[in-house]
Design goal:
By secondary structure, the chain is mainly α. It contains 13 helices and no strands. It has one domain (2-298). Helix 5 (97-104) packs antiparallel against helix 12 (239-266), helix 6 runs parallel beside helix 12 and helix 7 (144-159) packs antiparallel against helix 8 (165-172).
Length: 303
C-alpha cells in the first residue's frame, strides 16, 4: 500500500502540473522516474495488462484529483492574485530545468545538441511574438472548438516533458475562460437559487457549460494515443535532440508568459507598482524554484 499511495501522490503532483502555469506534468514525471515507465505501460498495456493496470491506477486517480482540485483553486487565485501566482509558477518552471537537462543528456551529450534548443526556442518564440503583436493573448471566451483544442493542448502538455501548456493557453488568451468551463457550474447553480429559481432551473443553468466540458475531454482523448505513440518513437530514436528542442520551447514559453503579464499590467490603469510588490514577486519566484528543485529529491519513484 505504501507504493500505491506514493504513486497516488506522484500522480496528484503531475495532475497539478497539467493545469498550473509554469509547471509541466511531463517534466515532473521525468524527475520522479515515472515518465518512460508510464509511457511504456500505456502503449504496451495489453502485453502485461495486470501489471500495467496496477502501475497506472494510482497515477491516474491522483492525476485526475490534482487536476480538478487545483482547477478550482486557481479560479479563485487568478481572480485576485494573478501576478503573484504567475511569479511563483515561473519559479516552478525554472526550477524544473535542471531535471530536464539531466534527462536530455542521459544517453550522452553531443556538441550539436544546443542547436536543437535554439530551433525549439526560435519556433516557439516566433509564435509567441506573433500572438503578442496581434493581441492574441488578450482574454477571450471559448467556443466548442476551442474547448476541444484546449483539452488537446493540456493533454499534450501532460505527455510532453518540459512543455508548460498552461503558458500556451495563457498566450492564447483562453486559460481563464477554459478554467471557467469547469468551475462555473457551482456558481451558476448558486446564483440561480439566489435569484429565486426552482431547483430544476438552477440545475439547468449549472449544466450550460457541460457541452464545453465534453468537448474539452474529447480533445484530450483524441490527442492522447497519437501523441503517446509519437513521443515514444521520437524519444527512443532521437532522445537527446528531442529533449533539447523541448528545453528551447520551455525557455521561450517562460519569456512569453513574462512579456504577456508585463503588457497586461502596463495596460491596467489601476495597477500601481510598489517596492514591496517587487520583493514579494521575487520571494514567490524563489519559493517556486526551490520547491521545483526539491521535487526530484523527495518524490523520486523508480521501483
Amino acid at each position: 500500500m505504501g507504493s500505491f499511495f506514493k504513486k497516488f501522490f506522484a500522480g496528484f503532483v503531475i495532475g497539478v502540473g497539467g493545469i498550473i502555469p509554469g509547471f509541466s506534468g511531463g517534466i515532473l514525471a521525468v524527475s520522479m522516474g515515472l515518465y518512460k515507465p508510464a509511457i511504456d505501460a500505456i502503449t504496451g498495456f495489453f502485453k502485461a495488462p495486470k501489471q500495467n493496470f496496477k502501475f497506472l491506477l494510482p497515477l491516474a486517480i491522483g492525476g485526475v484529483l490534482g487536476f480538478i482540485i487545483f482547477m478550482f483553486l486557481l479560479d479563485w487565485l487568478f481572480a485576485d492574485f494573478r501576478t503573484y501566482v504567475i511569479c511563483a509558477f515561473i519559479g516552478l518552471v525554472v526550477g524544473s530545468m535542471p531535471s530536464l537537462l539531466r534527462e536530455s543528456n542521459e544517453q550522452g551529450y553531443k556538441k550539436h545538441y544546443p542547436l536543437w534548443s535554439v530551433l525549439g526556442f526560435v519556433f516557439a518564440f516566433t509564435l509567441i511574438i506573433l500572438g503578442l503583436v496581434t493581441n492574441a493573448g488578450a482574454p477571450k471566451d471559448v467556443d466548442l472548438f476551442s474547448s476541444a483544442m484546449c483539452g488537446a493542448i493540456i493533454m499534450s502538455g501532460v505527455l510532453l516533458p518540459g512543455v508548460s501548456i498552461s503558458f500556451v493557453l495563457l498566450n492564447m488568451g483562453v486559460y481563464e475562460s477554459f478554467l471557467h468551463v469547469f468551475t462555473d457550474p457551482p456558481k451558476l447553480f448558486a446564483a440561480a437559487l439566489d435569484a429565486g429559481k426552482s431547483f430544476g432551473d438552477a440545475l439547468g443553468a449549472a449544466t450550460t457549460t457541460v457541452p464545453y466540458m465534453l468537448c474539452g475531454l474529447l480533445g484530450m482523448l483524441i490527442i492522447a494515443v497519437p501523441v503517446l505513440l509519437l513521443v515514444r518513437k521520437v524519444i527512443d530514436k532521437y532522445h537527446g535532440p528531442a529533449y533539447y528542442v523541448i528545453f528551447g520551447i520551455v525557455i521561450a514559453t517562460t519569456i512569453g508568459c513574462i512579456l504577456q503579464e508585463v503588457m497586461t499590467l502596463s495596460a491596467d490603469p489601476g495597477y500601481v507598482f510598489k517596492w514591496w510588490k517587487g520583493v514579494l514577486y521575487a520571494v514567490l519566484f524563489a519559493a517556486g524554484a526551490i520547491f521545483s528543485l526539491s521535487t526530484e529529491k523527495f518524490l523520486n519513484i523508480k521501483e
